[in-house]
Specification:
With about 250 residues, the chain is of the alpha/beta class. Helix content is about 45%, strand content about 15%. The mean pLDDT is about 95.
């Protein structure tokens, strides 16, 4: 018998224990018959003052990733979304692909995450020259750039906000995000990508698209979109940008 609330699809997702944005964002996109179930990767709300601090946080996250996945899989979801964009992109495309393959073999369900979802969205848009916004330190920005370079995308501009802790990412305002986009946008940019699942940006992406006349991709919304498509669900959404509206 199907789940009484998730009769169409139960989505499992893993997020850092410090993340306060993914869960409500995914709930905002939830359609009838679809439910989201969250397990948290245990990390401290540590000070991030250097590349070394950030790398340590990612390695701590990876150490608890499988345990968090195992916990959420006890709810028998039909799909897994990794809701930590730095973890799913770390060490380039081949390493990310191997990480995803390991999780798919362990869970027996399709697995996606922000980097793979963004790449799929860019493919739909036909965009090759991109600008990227992240809340991270430079070390993370290099890993993100490498992932997309591995897929033959050209990262024209990149800005990392160097947020001082994981929780502080969720405190970045929409005004600050718009100013950051002003710095990286330009006529040589086909599309803008927002990384950082703890940034509140899904609705703002559409506003920025209208302002800039080009696609603006929010990582949480395209992660959810990509997950639905992997499950064969073709729901479309207004108010979250071109990708969710058209593809």
């Amino acid at each position: 018998m199907p789940d009484q609330r998730g009769w169409k699809l139960k989505i499992g997702t893993v997020v850092p224990s410090t993340n306060t944005i993914v869960q409500p964002d995914f709930d905002d996109l939830r359609g009838d018959g679809i439910t989201t179930h969250v397990a948290r990767i245990g990390i401290p709300n540590m000070a991030i003052n250097s590349d070394e601090d950030f790398d340590k946080m990612v390695r701590l996250s990876e150490a608890d990733l499988v345990a968090a996945v195992d916990r959420v899989m006890t709810s028998a979801p039909g799909l897994l979304i990794v809701g930590m964009s730095s973890l799913i992109v770390w060490d380039g495309y081949e390493a990310s692909l191997a990480r995803r393959k390991m999780l798919e073999e362990r869970t027996g369900v399709p697995v996606t995450g922000g980097s793979f979802a963004v790449a799929a969205a860019l493919g739909k848009l036909g965009a090759k020259r991109i600008a990227i916004l992240s809340p991270y330190m430079p070390v993370a920005d290099r890993h993100i750039s490498q992932f997309f370079a591995d897929l033959d995308y050209e990262v024209v501009n990149f800005i990392g906000l160097k947020c001082p802790s994981p929780v502080a990412i969720a405190e970045v305002t929409g005004e600050d995000l718009s100013k950051a986009l002003d710095e990286i946008d330009g006529p040589d940019v086909d599309a803008i990508v927002q990384f950082g699942t703890n940034l509140h940006f899904m609705r703002q992406a559409e506003v920025e698209e209208q302002k800039r006349g080009k696609p603006v991709i929010a990582i949480n919304s395209v992660s959810y979109w990509h997950g639905l498509r992997a499950a064969g669900i073709e729901d479309r959404f207004e108010g979250y940008g071109r990708v969710l509206r058209e593809f």
